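Honest question from a wet-lab person: if I give you the sequences of every part of a complex, can you actually get the arrangement of the whole thing, not just the pieces? Trying it with mine:
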Amino acid sequence: MHDDLHEFKADFFKALGNPLRLRILDALRDHEKSVSMLQDELAVEQSTLSQQLSILAKKGFIVSRKEGTLNFYRVKDPDVYRLLDLGRTLFERHLQSSQRLLDALSSVEPRNK
Amino acid sequence: MHDDLHEFKADFFKALGNPLRLRILDALRDHEKSVSMLQDELAVEQSTLSQQLSILAKKGFIVSRKEGTLNFYRVKDPDVYRLLDLGRTLFERHLQSSQRLLDALSSVEPRNK
DNA sequence: ACGTAATATTGTGATATCATAATATTGTGA
DNA sequence: TCACAATATTATGATATCACAATATTACGT
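Yes, you can. This is the full assembly:
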């Protein structure tokens, strides 16, 4: 049921499926930052950064506030960090089980071929 | 720091950024299912389904168990549903605030141009 | 009004992702 | 061993995403 919902939800997760966008969100954990602050911190092309900020804003993850010529971005819903942190937990759990598998394989057949 | 980590983490979220893969995960909430069961339930091309299952498996979201000619898939870490549900919550919250914005706009200027 | 800093937008080519179609593999029963 | 069912893999073309470069916009100080 509700296949359209999956379409929207996929869009939501897709926004998180990019390393630069994740770095931006992480950079905004503590407080808002201007584009140039983010540019210094993340060391990426100005237009690239601006594009990814625009995508995050369009998807509703961040909002901006203009102050003169500066544009400050901040996270709209801080609970997104609960999502990111939970993702990290699951991801690390997966890495660990992969590692255990590799360990098991290498101890059972340490020298094949 | 740890920009490589963001690369991996983005990969993780990217796996969730596809409507069919979300539908597959939702279909596997209660119990394992064979490919043909999923095929009936989701009504997608056989090869498409197989490919997306393979992607989910490669990323560690699901594992499979062969029984004769059937292949049963199940979710590896059920906590992934906590992630999906949290995503839905945040997503709906975003939709609601967008809706409020639209409502506010339409009530303030109901007939411009 | 002019110049400049900060940011956004647009154009473009490379790469990734997707669905479909065609083909290959594997297991089972006759 | 043959045929068939279940699934996987490969090939292909369409579309999406990405980073970079170039250009445009906007606000401020002079």
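Two things worth pointing out. Chain B has a mean pLDDT of 89. Chain B touches chain A at residues 3, 6-23, 26, 59-60, 76-77, 79-80, 82-84, 86-91, 93-94, 97-98 (CB under 8 Å).
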